[in-house]
């Protein structure tokens, strides 16, 4: 009985690998497995190679495994591409249209090859070649020993909006796939999955968790320009926001979107934008303006591969240093890096709280892997009732605020750096706001003393902010001499690596950075001190997190640091981290 | 409109004096625009607490400090996106956008087109002096072909954009042109724009006395002419015809005026996000969790 299985569906875009993967993910969830998906799609609608990996496990998993147990190849070139992820005992099911016999370079020792006439069956028996992918779903369901009632339900849920006819045809295709296995039982390997009861876990993509967090957290305004991998936020919220009297709108460009959100925030709303590297590059003048005007704003930033257009649909952590320093001039900001579905939800809520309480821009920093892949989480881990909304020093009556010549002091100097936030439209009073250096009433002045006190006022927020931000999460092993430091989506493979090393008697402690900025220097320093070796795992070339860590620790500890980086655009596999650590410990 | 009128006090233009005294050059056309704005505000009894003046960068951008209302001084070119955000954030606010020819039509050109298309209820006044004043005299998108400036020493090779034609083509629901040197008609036009619901564009020819020695008060007086009284303001074709050819003169007046649903009405379904309970989304998240856990 298998309790951890990984299937890759590969073909060219338009082959239906995506829907096959989605259906399979639902099926695995329904037999009580934790699921994670890895979509690997080109920036293209049809014709280029694409693949979709689904992993199901009886234990929570947040990343892909080292090898695939199954490869469903809709074409022969896909076998070639993904051969390296097959190992002894893996099964390669491929469409026999291009010939049953594979050339030697496509064969790997110990891999079980099964040619099936998927297209032919779909075309001749079902009258629609496209439906070959559901025949493949049927094949896998039968091999896994999934009840027909479950596959029927998943098909219904996935296709009911397309009408009864489509549902029936898809069910028929699945059934036909099952028959293929039954008819040729000897040709298929035994691969039964253990059955559990589905406790009704949530299966959703990272962007969905962020969108739900935004709604629960009182966000009432989103302006965005479509960009991979954050567009799903715009799509989700443009459907949902209306239901709460808010607005989620598609702006004419990235620059407009952040300025619209700033406008909405000035009017008193919790406002956000969603984008990725190329878009955030255009938004930095707005970021700087939010910094100067102390306008609360939440920027959701899903990193993709750069520079420039880079690999638009692939994952990276290349923009850590960029977003820490983006925007001209000096101003406080908060950058949060969630790693799990519950963090994607709750940190989004907290992003709005911190933005309003401290009147600063807050960035939720994710990447394509977290943003666009699906994860399961136990339902009770996300409870909207636990959401707390803290609006900070919002002013509802102008008479509560001192004035200068009738103008309310929106930028009144306060010990904690946080001034009364006046919302236009309130009784008795008006205020000004400007990107120019300004006086307490919010009107431009070049006075030298004023400049000094305003800079100090804005920057003094940092020392108060540091005390409040989410600390790093420490996964501690007693007396571990080896440590890992990372942030964000590398969490899944790191946890699996640690588990594997532990089995061999190698104890590893792990410090996961949640607040990237202000950087948690004290916690990092403390973590590094009693370790002999520190591995910093991140998805970029230069070692940007390493730069931040090295900056935080004293010189004598720097020789302990080793970087483990990956910048191919694909997420880490546990083995890639494990091997590098073992090699270093030899 | 009624909700933004002040409840009690009879106001005078003086009541709309801002935080600062204007810092424009003596003789600048912008003084006349500001004074017309105050006159109209007093006449209709505009409530300063419920009004937001949004301005950009440039000489025009300074105006947010010269008028008694909430003032938002934005980035160069970003007047309209910020104004749109404010209007969507609280549609009960009366939003005036003050911009220049460079601010509205060069760096902010894209936003101009799309705000017009959406018909957001914003009153945009373009203080058009056909030059960059604050940066000391470079040519602007409305500078005439051949115009010699510090950045076009051989004469500008570019042809100017006509804000009126662009506004009409982009779908603005109120389009007009006025001249700083004709304060009475300027005031009348601003008043009509304020009473119109929807994106209103007024291109105000506003001489720069320091850097533009060509398009002076006298030059404008010789080159302008008012639209005839019988012009059908609801007729877009007629508006285009007048805007593009008018006896070789620069036509002044209201070219087009026709109400249609505003962007915020369509997006918000008459709700006001500012008045919504921030916790009201939580129940919906429970429902969403259910759909994701099926």
Keywords:
heterodimer; A: 586 residues; eight-stranded mixed sheet; 37% helix; 24% strand; B: 294 residues; two-stranded antiparallel sheet; 10 helices; globular
- Oligomeric organization of the protein chains: heterodimer
**Mean pLDDT of chain B, nearest integer?**
95
Sum up the overall morphology of chain A in one term.
globular
Sheet-strand content of chain A, in percent, reads 15-25%
Number of helices of chain A: 19
Most extensive interface = A-B, 74 and 59 residues
Describe the sheet with the most strands of chain B. Answer: 8 strands, mixed
Q: Helix- and strand-based class of chain B?
A: alpha/beta
Q: What is the molecular shape of chain B?
A: globular
Strand order of the largest sheet of chain B: 2-1-3-4-8-7-10-9
Strand content of chain B: 15-25%
Q: Would you mind describing this structure in some detail?
A:
The complex is a heterodimer of chains A (586) and B (294). The longest helix of chain A is centred in the first third of the chain and has 20 residues, at 164-183. Chain A has 586 residues and is of the alpha/beta class. The two termini of chain A are 35 Å apart. The mean pLDDT of chain A is 96. In chain A, a hairpin with a 5-residue loop joins strand 11 (297-305) and strand 12. In chain A, 37% of the residues lie in helices and 24% in strands. The mean pLDDT of chain B is 95. With 294 residues, chain B is an alpha/beta fold. Chain B has helices at residues 30-44, 79-89, 101-105, 109-118, 163-170, 183-195, 217-223, 236-244, 263-268, 282-292; strands at 51-55, 70-73, 94-100, 122-128, 131-132, 138-139, 174-179, 200-205, 224-226, 250-257. At the A-B interface, strand 7, helix 7, strand 8, helix 9 and helix 10 of A face strand 2, helix 2, helix 4, helix 9 and helix 10 of B.
